[in-house]
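Example 3.2
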Amino acid sequence: MDDLQGTDDMPPDDDASSEPATSGEGAAPGDRATSGEGTAPGDRATSGEGTAPGDRATSGEGTAPGDRATSGEGTAPEDRAAPSDRAVSSGWVADGGNAGFGRAGAGWALVVLGVVILAVVAVTTPWRVMPSGTPTVTPDPARDFSAAEIARAAAFDAATSLPGYLSLGLTVLFAGLLVLTPFGAKAVGWLRGPWWVRVVLGVVVLTVIVEAIRWPLGIWYEVQLRDYGLSTQDWAGWTGDRLKSLAVNVVLLSIMVLVVVALARWLRRWWIPAAVGAFAFTLVASFVYPVVFEPLFNDFRPMPGGALRANLMMLAERAHVPVEDVLIADASRRTNALNAYVSGFGATRRIVVYDTLLRAPQSEVELVVAHELGHAKYGDVLVGTLVGGLGAAFGTILLFLLLGMLRRRTGIASAADPRAVGVIMGLMSLVTVVSGPAQNVISRHIEARADLHALNLTKDPATFLSMQKRLAITNISDLSPDPVEYVLYASHPSAAERLAMAREWAALNGQQQP
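Structure, written as tokens:
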């Protein structure tokens, strides 16, 4: 939600290092990166790959002393859990009616939470952006872009689609391997130490495995970005960004999995506090992201006083969005793509402009920021964080239910078994991929509303068109996305759709169509 360029309709690059938790107004987790712009290394439209916390599908090892295996497979004496850990896994161990009641309660909670999520999404998503009776303009890229520009966009899409699809396929295959086979448990079964050490090491081990497999695809994708003039990084910078993103994922994955395994070792119905914790973690991470994670990938400096800064602050005032400062991010050291976003909440809210965007005319910069202020005005990140938190709670309960069906197949005793790390991460990764298209549908409507806000605030459809064309050409947006890519990856309307909307706005407001 945080950018205006409309380039999220291309396949993700292989990094898909989706930054968990968002930075501020107008961005869903990981949304900061699109087509060539990326905040974390190479985060180019990561939607379809699902490497949000959990994507790196990982695993741990056997139960601590005495976790009386309920899976039917024996464990070495040193892997049996202490008496206090006996059969506390999650209600999956045989405990007569109590376990059944736990599953039934979780099932009902899942249904209720699902209904709540659907209701919140249905009420908060702007399904119809333009007022009824607005003249319809058919999106047509040939109206605004030359044949050469359309061909270049198609060639870039073709060049990046293969590594993107291969990366998505590897993500799904690796997650499936962890969910449907004992691979995860065996891969880290040799680890020793306290259960919590084995959990963390399990996350690291399987993260390294999947990242080693995906690394060549990352190089392939980066080469394409360089060939088309989008990436400005050298290999040292690219590798450093990728490793930093990997470290962030490992830390967040470890926290989440540690909490799940710890609760499963202490409580039979661990899904209750785990679901509450997942909801709270999503909210906290969204607030912490701008302060902790954004500075890892970009340096920020205050925008010098002048006409542009004054106009941007005035736009924020007219939009009734309090903003503390206007910052410039040094994105040019990574990319030539253009972007801006509004980051933070309350006293930490600031407008962030990529230094690459400053090459555009001032009026176009103001329109980009007006779009981002729309996200802040409508509280898109707050709503997105709320829905994300509810979704995290939903996924936690689903995890509780699915682990009971998968524990024998994957060779784990229960969720209390450190070797369950792989199953947990595999399920999280698959859920991320499967939920991507639905998230994109919602995001496209929200982005359209932000476009409308920019038009209403500036009342300048001609500049809106020139700005969208500049963004689409510079960022090499897919001007004619095929239906599959549109469903899987497009978190923004296509450039042609956004240009058609500007013309509809002009007709509705009695202005000549640009």
